[in-house]
Amino acid sequence: MKSRSVIDFHTHVFPDDIAPRALKALSEHSGPYRPYTDGTLKGLLNSMDSAGITLSVVANIATKPTQSKAILGFSRTIVSERIYPLVSFHPENSPDEVYEILKEASSSGIRGVKLHPMYQGFAIDDRAMFPFYEMIEKEGFFIVFHTGYDIAFPGNLQASVDRVRALAEAFKNLSIVTTHAGGWRQWDRVEILTGYDNIFFELSMTVTEVGKEAFRDIILRLPGERLFFGTDSPWTDQAEMIEVIDSLSIPDALKEAILYRNAEAFLKTYRSMPES
């Protein structure tokens, strides 16, 4: 295995007592995708060790307003030099509740939020969400959104690239990390996002849909300095996804930027990272 650093910007884990039923429920709507880990922190760390991954960003989603505080608590227990968890909130949480979550997260070195429009019942550019975005921007957090379509919500456009563009226009100082190369199964339209310096592109679940040649073409249409490697673990194998990047006919410097350098520079803004 090559001795190098890799950051996976899109993973999922659950508390040990919840992981089995969470994976079972999610697997019912995951199409051809099946989990490669048991969904626990230990399972992810074992996968990271096997793949040679330095750090994983763990995305948590509050599907109910009552889950937001529990996710905060879980995130605070797993944050480490190898795990950067994202907190979440639900649109039905009050502004005061969200503010408290952000403050407590920041005190633990966490300054990222994950939101999933379909699972949480909102549109990315819904003006009812703007007070939350203003708070996130003011407190110096970034947001990771599920973007594009979703395998469990066919035809749903709550996270469309057009809505992402509208948000980026409205909040020019808010760092927005799109998942799935800008928008899952909207790859013919993601170039409308490339002109916004506050939009970043995590790349998971793209090559598995379009193949290596088309994946390479998508990468080359996006800004190379704003691309993040991601796997959506446990739904793909981390080691296999690194091998995909290594196998692409793109410059070695771009591979290194995707696998580590871009995310390293980005996360240094939001936490202290060891020098490589």
Polypeptide structure, described:
The protein has 276 residues and is α/β, with parallel strands linked by helices. The protein has one domain: Metal-dependent hydrolases (TIM Barrel), CATH 3.20.20. It is built from eleven helices and eight strands. It has helices spanning 19-27, 41-51, 68-78, 95-107, 117-120, 130-138, 161-170, 207-210, 212-221, 238-247, 252-268, and strands at residues 7-11, 55-59, 83-86, 112-115, 142-145, 176-178, 199-202, 227-228. The strands form two sheets. The chain has a five-stranded parallel β-sheet. A three-stranded parallel β-sheet has the order 1-2-3. Helix 2 (41-51) runs parallel beside helix 10 (238-247) and helix 4 (95-107) runs parallel beside helix 6 (130-138).
Shape: globular
Into how many domains do the coordinates divide?
A: 1
* Rg result: 17 Å
Write the CATH architecture name.
Alpha-Beta Barrel
- What structural class is derived from the secondary structure elements? alpha/beta
The fold-level CATH name is: TIM Barrel
Strand order of the largest sheet: 4-5-6-7-8
Uncertain segments are 272-276
Strand percentage lies at 5-15%
Please name the fourth-level CATH homologous superfamily: Metal-dependent hydrolases
The CATH class turns out to be Alpha Beta
Put simply, the count of helices is 11
The number of distinct β-strands equals 8
Quote the average pLDDT. 95
- The helical percent reads 25-40%
Please outline the major beta sheet.
5 strands, parallel
The H-and-E topology, N to C, reads as EHHEHEHEHHEHEEHHEHH
- The span between the termini is 18 Å
